[in-house]
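Predict structure. Chain length: 479.
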Amino acid sequence: MAARSAISPQIEPMKRYLLQFAHEHFDFRVQEIKSILSLIGCQATLKESDLNDGSPFMELELASDTVAKALMQRTVLSKRLYEFWEEGTSVSDVSTKIRQLPKDMIEPYTSESNSFRIVVETFNKKLSSGEKISRIEKLTETGSIFRGPINLNCPDYSFHLLEFYHNDATSQPASEPSKIYFGRWIADGQRARIQQYHLQKRHFIANTSMDACLSMVMANFGQIKDNDFVFDPFVGSGSLLVACAHYGAYVAGTDIDFLLLHAKAKPSRAKQKARSQDESVRSNLQQYGFESKYIDVLVADASHHKMWREGCQFDAIITDPPYGIRESAAKIANVQDAKVITLEEGAQRYPQKAQYQLGDIFKDLLNFAAKYLNKGGRLVYWLPIYKPDYQESNIPQHPCLEVESNCEQPLSTTISRRLITMVKIREFEGPESDREQKASIAVDHYQCETFRQKYFRATETETQEKKESDTLSSGKNHS
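Prediction complete.
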């Protein structure tokens, strides 16, 4: 596949917009926006400080509504985007300010021939219908900028009044808004895709199937686009392939689990006694009309790179390696004995497996990416972390790859996983035996203790702390 071509940045006057994020995956939201903007080749200015006090609203500058709509066609962590008209601390303040806006900015949307509606939304506080109506009346009273007819069902233009109430966990919610925004609706994000691809509706799932939202976030971090060739070396039930195929990529993968890929493994759904024979990664892609994007999935050991011919190149590698908790981290013990053999009595003998250390998994993954990714291609993968021991030097490195982003998803008070995105910045040169061409980990997070051991130690500690807290609370109540 051809390497990604650079897109020249646009040089146009910038317009103010307001982005409303969904209230989840906080550490991923801004990076998803940056990745999408980089993919579509557009300049932007993001005011990230807007999010510091827990607000879901962030101001940004973009070249045009066209760029804004292209952004919203990809993001799954954003709810809506508005052309940013004004802000204030009260409805009266905002109403006064929008009357002073330049005519050439507002008249195309507020003339007598254009129907409109005003939607009132709040964050961290609920308003009654009467309170919302009083705000709308304040904005549309005599002398307002709105001259067209009101149409609540299908207006020409929709305007939103957005109120943010700061909620400090140590005190009561604020009675007055910290900030009020007003803007013209431009586009919704792709939140509906989460339900469209929800695992409950999926034909084939496994114990560790990636949920639809994070699968699409990973595809966005990988900047997947039409006709890319994407590979997942730990494919499982193919959730990541579905997300990448949604964005137009051709997909392939490998997995060491013969029984899972052949629908012979124990079912993952409650009350299901046996898997259907047609359960497969391919059937998942068929379910969504993406079969034409399916290349193949092989039963193979991701640690053995010599199975790939020289020159095989991928545009992105998107994967979730096994952590050794719900799925074992294993590799083929003997490469010479790697085939499934059918015995005389009809039973099948599978290759013997050996434990695959997490540190080795990630180094092998980076070595594979350095050799088989196109220059400019992206490697996106999850790194499980025991937070008390974590440091930046735990992130695997390779001279051909550069870390673009490192985002955290907390799973408990002590356990999290980090979504690492790396970009291939130079071609792989020299033999694999060359130390200078190999991946390394400055401080191996799992050298002295496996993630499984860290995980269960953390779980036991949290359980004990909860028991002590409950006992102490019970004692206070009795006294």
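Summary: The mean pLDDT is 90.
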